[in-house]
């Protein structure tokens, strides 16, 4: 990604630090922004994303709530009705399920139900996905539930810079945003310029992370590093893979995805969530509907298995890795390729 | 062998054998407990201190409310309302809830509480929009400070808490009154809302109308608590048990709770003991789960009749007063009937307008598809609209 900041201002930062900075800047800019959740106060959250906010802005702005996710989100709805802009932290993906009714029945529908009179400018931050050795209920990829709910935006960063930019954009949005934080990337580092960070606008634009011509890997959040690695490794196989980071599942950037697939003629969707009923099915269908005559092969998927998230000792077999991605790329009917300059 | 004597336990037993750290209850539960009997004013000595003006005002509202309930039920038979959950028999609760609030306050009604919204000044046609089968709640909640009618039970209670809390953070002396039924108290959101309200000392009044049934299930199958009002103690807030058919008692208790909340005294749980005279809705058959005899005992404790008895004793129930009151109620019903018989103007394109503040490309494409179908339908050849999907590139 490009930046106008001088190179000297850039230094290594983690995704967690960028998220904290985004919350802090949003709170400093807009007194309506309130952070609330379990352990977000003195502790700074179990992942320390809200570190220092209660101290800087006071407990009324960064509030340790009772341990009740439906209550947290339900009261946030009421706060939004009164003009506040709550940023809710759900401690882990699977601990957000008690709040599901509030999310589906009210957060997602209040604006529509009131013909725009009662908007829901809420951001619901949810650490999600596996790969951190978490015991049961700490590693779910729950995005399919959210993207199947009309009225919600579903956003997920994969880079340090996006963690800041997308979170700022989510908080600034007048629509409710389910902000999925890939917890295994919390400690990923990148050169970042914390002195001149910028929000991403508008939400819903995918980003091409690697240019290529052989096939397009379409991914988001926690699976981006595996895709980038696969793309590098793919060079040895003679593949020049393009990698698209969706950044936002809702709204979905058909244009960027389809332009890429039309260029490469082949596509693989990669995500941790299960395949059946997962985002990949929708993405594959959208590509097929729009790019059929450009496709050299069916759109394939590399996903988690359709099983309850496996325990830490076995999770590596579940997560889409470089080998599985490249094995799938190999199945993209290269033998039928008639286009010069493409394929192995 | 005690735990301390087990192998591996500390040798320094004396340091582990001390008394437990001091414990005391976090609040004194005694003042939070509800009365043993539902609080009543009518028929007691306390009735003498009631102002006649309040009684006539309550009476007029109750009579209007009863007529409104009858008219709305009739509209379901005429196909003008998709469904109507009647509050017949519960008018004292509905009216008292509305009158307890000031203009700046907020009401959070459930689907059975359109009467409270109407008593607060909302146009009945707007109040019934959702039950008519339209796609939106019918009114701007900010205009009357009435939240949209809430259908998933008890889920609007945390909204009331959050709104009241936000108002308090902003320094506004706004109170929220949230309404729920006896069945709704079993929902998790009831528990979480009361817990948050008490923790935050939010200016909220929770009004539980215990009308005996959650559709068909009686209270005995909802709770083993001494009363629903007793639940308040577990949250550290006062519980009040009131005769929900005694309009002045309801008015007094809710008024006190609202004032207490406004003064910074925190939330109150009020259980109004009342009875759902009609079936759950027009689609329900109450004869399957309760006896006529039971209904009759409650008809004998009717909120309007109770008030009439008091008014008659004061010589206020004159023919003229009764006639004026009835006329006002008939006007309300006639107006409602007439306006509900006009078909609402619906624009299917509105279904897409307010889903998001910023429309997504996906919805823009789908709206275009519906637009094409509507245009083709209007032109008399709907088959022309076929094949417009999938839409072209969606740019968010």
Descriptive report:
The complex is a heterodimer of chains A (344) and B (396). By secondary structure, chain A is an alpha/beta fold. Chain A folds into 2 domains: 7-192, Thiamin diphosphate (ThDP)-binding fold, Pyr/PP domains (Rossmann fold, 3-Layer(aba) Sandwich), CATH 3.40.50; 207-333, Rossmann fold (3-Layer(aba) Sandwich), CATH 3.40.50.920. Chain A is built from 12 helices and 14 strands. Chain A has a 7-stranded mixed sheet, with helices on both faces. In chain A, helix 8 packs across helix 12. The longest helix of chain A is centred in the first third of the chain and has 15 residues, at 15-29. Chain B has 396 residues and is α/β, with parallel strands linked by helices. Chain B folds into 2 domains: 30-340, Rossmann fold, CATH 3.40.50; 350-385. Helices cover 41% and strands 8% of the residues of chain B. Chain B has 15 helices and 7 strands. A 5-stranded parallel sheet of chain B has the order 1-2-3-7-6, sandwiched between helices. A two-stranded antiparallel sheet of chain B has the order 4-5. The N and C termini of chain B lie far apart (71 Å). The model of chain B has no long low-confidence stretch (mean pLDDT 93). The interface between A and B is large, with 54 and 47 residues. Chain B: Keywords: Oxidoreductase, Pyruvate, Thiamine pyrophosphate. Chain B: This is Pyruvate dehydrogenase (Acetyl-transferring) E1 component subunit alpha. Chain B: InterPro entries: Alpha-ketoacid_DH_E1_comp, DH_E1, PdhA/BkdA, THDP-binding. Chain B: Its cofactor is thiamine diphosphate. Chain B: It comes from Streptomyces bugieae.
């Amino acid at each position: 990604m490009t930046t106008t900041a001088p190179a000297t201002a850039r230094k290594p930062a983690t995704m967690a630090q960028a998220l904290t900075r985004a919350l802090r800047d949003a709170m400093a800019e807009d007194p309506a922004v309130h952070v609330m959740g379990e352990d977000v106060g003195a502790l700074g959250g179990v992942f320390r994303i809200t570190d220092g906010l209660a101290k800087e802005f006071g407990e009324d702005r960064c509030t340790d709530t009772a341990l009740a996710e439906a209550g947290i989100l339900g009261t946030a709805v009421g706060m939004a009705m009164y003009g506040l802009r709550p940023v809710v932290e759900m401690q882990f993906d699977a601990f957000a399920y008690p709040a599901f009714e509030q999310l589906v029945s009210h957060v997602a529908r209040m604006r529509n139900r009131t013909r725009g009179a009662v908007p829901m400018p809420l951001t619901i931050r949810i650490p999600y996905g596996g790969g951190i050795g978490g015991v049961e209920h700490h590693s779910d990829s729950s995005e399919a539930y959210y993207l199947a709910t009309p009225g919600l935006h579903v956003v997920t960063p994969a880079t340090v810079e996006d963690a800041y930019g997308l979170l700022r954009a989510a908080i600034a949005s007048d629509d409710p945003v389910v902000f999925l934080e890939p917890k295994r990337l919390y400690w990923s580092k990148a050169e970042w310029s914390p002195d001149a960070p910028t929000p991403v606008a508008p939400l819903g634009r995918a980003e091409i992370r690697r240019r290529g011509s052989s096939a397009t890997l379409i991914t988001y959040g926690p699976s981006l590093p595996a895709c980038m690695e696969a793309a590098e490794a793919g060079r040895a196989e003679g593949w020049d893979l393009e990698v698209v980071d969706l950044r936002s599942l809702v709204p979905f950037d058909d244009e960027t995805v389809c332009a890429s697939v039309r260029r490469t003629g082949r596509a693989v969707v990669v995500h941790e969530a299960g395949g059946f009923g997962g985002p990949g099915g929708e993405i594959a269908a959208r590509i097929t509907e729009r790019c059929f005559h450009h496709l050299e092969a069916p759109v394939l998927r590399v996903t988690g298995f359709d099983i309850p998230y496996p325990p830490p000792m076995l999770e590596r077999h579940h997560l889409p890795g470089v080998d599985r991605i490249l094995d799938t790329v190999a199945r993209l009917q290269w033998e039928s390729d008639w286009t010069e300059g493409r394929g192995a | 062998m005690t735990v301390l004597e087990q192998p591996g336990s500390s040798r320094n037993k004396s340091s582990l054998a001390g008394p437990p750290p001091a414990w005391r209850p976090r609040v004194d539960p005694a003042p939070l407990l509800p009365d043993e009997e539902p609080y009543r004013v009518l028929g007691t000595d306390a009735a003498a201190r009631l102002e006649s003006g309040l009684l006539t005002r309550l009476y007029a509202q109750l009579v209007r409310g009863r007529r409104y309930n009858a008219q709305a039920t009739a509209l379901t038979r005429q196909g003008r309302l998709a469904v109507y959950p009647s509050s017949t028999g519960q008018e004292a609760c509905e009216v008292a809830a509305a009158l307890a609030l000031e203009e700046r306050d907020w009401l959070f009604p459930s689907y059975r509480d359109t009467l409270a919204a109407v008593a607060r000044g909302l146009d009945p046609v707007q109040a019934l929009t959702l039950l008519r089968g339209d796609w939106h709640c019918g009114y701007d909640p900010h205009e009357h400070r009435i939240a949209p009618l809430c259908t998933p039970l008890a889920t609007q209670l945390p909204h009331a808490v959050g709104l009241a809390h936000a108002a308090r953070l902003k320094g506004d002396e706004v109170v929220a009154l949230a309404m729920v039924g006896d069945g709704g108290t079993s929902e998790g959101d009831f528990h979480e809302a009361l817990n948050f309200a008490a923790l935050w000392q939010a200016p909220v009044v929770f009004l539980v109308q215990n009308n005996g049934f959650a559709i068909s299930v009686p209270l005995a199958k909802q709770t083993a608590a001494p009363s629903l009002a007793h639940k308040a103690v577990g949250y550290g807030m006062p519980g009040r048990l009131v005769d929900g058919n005694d309009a002045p008692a309801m008015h007094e208790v809710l008024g006190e709770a609202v004032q207490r909340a406004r003064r910074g005294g925190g939330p109150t749980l009020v259980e109004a003991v009342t009875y759902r005279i009609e079936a759950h809705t027009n689609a329900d058959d109450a004869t399957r789960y309760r006896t006529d005899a039971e209904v009759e005992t409650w008809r004998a404790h009717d909120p309007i009749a109770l008030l009439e008895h008091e008014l008659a004793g004061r010589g206020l129930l004159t023919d003229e007063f009764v006639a004026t009151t009835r006329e006002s109620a008939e006007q309300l019903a006639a107006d409602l009937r007439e306006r509900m018989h006009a078909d609402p103007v619906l624009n299917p394109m509105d279904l897409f307008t307010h889903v998001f503040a910023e429309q997504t490309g996906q919805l823009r494409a789908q709206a275009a598809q519906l637009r094409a179908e509507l245009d083709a339908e209007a032109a008399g050849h709907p088959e022309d609209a076929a094949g417009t999907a999938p839409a072209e590139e969606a740019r968010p």
